[in-house]
Amino acid sequence: MPERIHEKLARKEKLVEKRDRMLEHDFSSERATLEEVFDQATLMVIYDFLNSGLLYEMHGVVNAGKEARVYWGKDKDGKDVAVKIYLTTSAEFRKGMLKYIEGDYRFKGVKRDTRSLIFAWAQKEYKNLEQAYQAKVRVPKPIAVKDNVLLMEFIGKNGVNAPSLKEQPPSNPEEVYKLLLTYVKRLYSKAELVHGDLSEYNLMMWKGKPVLFDMAQAVPTSHPMAQFFLNRDLANINRFFSRLGVSVLPINEVYNQVVS
């Protein structure tokens, strides 16, 4: 009996040690992530927003990608705010963004170092959101931007962001398809922009209507690759909605409707 008890205690001790090692690993991993996101310069920008009243509270992360983290916050009036922080250490991200910045007349002369490009990328998303919002395209309303931090409308409730079309396909796909094409046309003709990466992954459903997000890569219609990006966006939309049983329009017909 004493031997059996001793064995049980030994096993329990090993489990406790394993748990402690896992907790230590999780803590160090979380700490590394926080240090990566909230470097000194980023913290100063957050403090500026807090001091101005544009941001009053900041809560947990609601979306985490390789290039950015999105946090749920509130302004001084208690309204929900999305705080998007671009990682200034994301060198891989730098390679992918160049094709969207080069050829954009609004960002001529941007330096090619990672930090300058990421600051320009945040400015680009803010400007694109602003132009799209004014053109009555459903996007998160932009609030403010500084360096690598963007404040915008939070699409969701109580810190839970709205689902993407990928996560939750619409119950009325035909109506959503038509409305989405209307948004793409408004984006092109009124905002003079092409989204550039439109798919079910960066379209949310909120209150029965689609919402376009991840607007940083959107390019002006004068961009050398604008027509290629537009065709790709339309192909992605058609592919997704055809799977939902929608009788989609031929790409050339949709394209002509958008650019006419």
CATH superfamily of the largest domain: Phosphorylase Kinase, domain 1
Radius of gyration: 22 Å
Report the portion of residues in β strands: 15-25%
Indicate the CATH architecture of the largest domain.
2-Layer Sandwich
Mean pLDDT: 86
Can you tell me the overall shape? globular
Task: State the share of residues found in helices, binned by percent.
Answer: 40-55%
Question: If helices are DSSP runs of H or I spanning 4 or more residues, what is the number of helices?
Answer: 7
How does this structure look, described?
- The chain folds into three domains: 37 residues; 118 residues, 2-Layer Sandwich (Phosphorylase Kinase, domain 1); 99 residues, Transferase(Phosphotransferase) domain 1 (Transferase(Phosphotransferase), domain 1).
- 48% of the residues lie in helices and 18% in strands.
- The chain has seven helices and eleven strands.
- It has a five-stranded antiparallel beta sheet, sandwiched between helices. A two-stranded antiparallel sheet has the order 6-7. A two-stranded antiparallel ribbon has the order 8-11.
Question: How do the strands and helices of this protein lay out in sequence?
Answer:
Layout: H1 2-37, H2 40-52, E1 57-64, E2 68-74, E3 80-86, H3 91-101, H4 114-134, E4 142-146, E5 149-153, E6 156-157, E7 160-161, H5 173-189, E8 193-194, E9 203-206, E10 209-212, E11 219-220, H6 226-243, H7 251-259
Antiparallel strand pairs: 1-2, 2-3, 3-5, 4-5, 6-7, 8-11, 9-10
Helix pairs in contact: 3-4, 5-6, 5-7
